[in-house]
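Pilot study result, target chain (170 residues):
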Amino acid sequence: MIDIDLWNNSIQEQYLEKQYSSQTKNAITHINKKYQTWALDFLDVDKNNECGRILEYVENNKYIFESVVVLWIWGSALWTKAIFQVLKWKYYNELQEEKRGWYPKLYVLDNVDPIEIKNLNDILNLEKTLFIVISKSGTTIETLSQYKFFVSKIKERALDIKKHFIIITW
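Predicted structure:
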């Protein structure tokens, strides 16, 4: 259910209720109809029970990885950062391992700035880093550049790429 709190707002709630009541009811009816016919897949991302598999993977591997690096670009990466700060807090990565519940540090690389990429690479223990590559098309040049850089670093250390990379496309 959608609830709008208009307390301390200059718009009177009665005005909005009277003015937009029918449009709001129509919009909610339309959304519910689409949801029931699976036309809004994004509202139920776990319809294939993927979240259970993801949570199991995280629990089974949280002691293996010290860091998780999300390779994503521009505004899309902001979602990861925003959710991370809501669920954790801005300086979560600075906490001792036990205070993080032994979960890895999270870094979101959201650009192709060579200095930032080098600095991130310098602080990572690649043997204990998992990279999550996210690209809707799978062909985003900036994300592919980030990916290729870190793949080369993993290969330099003769590590198994399959153990250090998860790729998400849709």
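One observation from the pilot: The longest strand covers residues 129-134. A full batch analysis is planned for the follow-on phase.
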